[in-house]
Write a structure and sequence with these properties.
The longest helix has 19 residues, at 63-81. The N and C termini lie far apart (60 Å). The chain has helices at 48-51, 63-81, 97-104, 151-159, 200-209, 240-251, 254-258, 264-280; strands spanning 16-23, 27-33, 40-42, 87-91, 108-112, 138-142, 165-168, 196-197, 213-216, 221-225. The strands form two sheets. Strands 5-4-6-7-10-9 form a six-stranded mixed beta sheet, with helices on both faces. A four-stranded antiparallel beta sheet has the order 1-2-3-8, with no helix packed on it. By secondary structure, it is α/β, with parallel strands linked by helices. Strand 6 (138-142), helix 4 (151-159) and strand 7 (165-168) form a beta-alpha-beta unit. It is built from eight helices and ten strands. This is 2-polyprenyl-3-methyl-5-hydroxy-6-metoxy-1, 4-benzoquinol methylase. Keywords: Methyltransferase, Transferase. GO terms for molecular function: methyltransferase activity. It comes from Mucilaginibacter pocheonensis. Pfam families: Methyltransf_23.
Length: 282
Amino acid sequence: MTTEDINCVICTNKLSALFEAQVMFSYNISYYKCPVCGTIQTEKPYWLSEAYENAITATDIGLLSRNIDLSTKVFNLITKTFDSSKKFLDFGGGYGVLVRLLRDKGLDFYRQDIYCQNIFAVNHDISDLKENERRFELVSCFEVFEHVADPFKLFEELLSYSSNILVSTVIIPENQSITSAADWWYFAPETGQHITFYTMRSLALIAEKYGMNLYSDGQGLHLFTPKKLNDDPLKQRTSLVDKIRNKLIHILSPSAKSGVISLTQNDVAIAKARALQHIMNK
């Protein structure tokens, strides 16, 4: 391995060779680590076009459970911290599962994804909105940052939609020795799609570059916002009082918690109307 002409995508410092691994069971590639901010990245990912022949990999069997879990966390964050009556965008939203779940909870979410078919959020894609309607209270971007070689380019695209950005990407373990791809499941070399991996320092540098505040659960969910919040809305709380509160939140329906009403019936009416219009236009 050589680190010649390879610099950190976050802080631009020269990288140190970390290990080699076989991606997609075909290509032996190098992984590097930044000695300053801790970011880990692969060599230039020449294999990505092949890796994305299928946008959703066969090994992502956690897609549904992950979206169910995220829908609760996103709903709670938005109804407590942001204006729940406004529009929201799920960037890189895949099949539209999360958008559908959040619309069922009453949040006016839309989907964006140029690589994947919209199955569950038909009629609620960003393409269904006019150009002047494509500004949102918050944009979510889940399991995307680890897929890109230029995080700043992605972040600026997200900023074009909203100044509040909610990201999920798993943070590199702090107290674990990593010397091979087998040491951390998130490398997922069999898919070839995960190419950049972050520390809290990495994310703090992104926030600093754009004058944002960073709030995080310290594991996988991170909020960038210009808002200065009195309390970190993503911080994990494990006291007895917090456990009781979380249990009550789980028991209560979304509408009982926040007054937000499900958009499911409204969306069914929209779908029927558009289907009828399609038939009449034939």
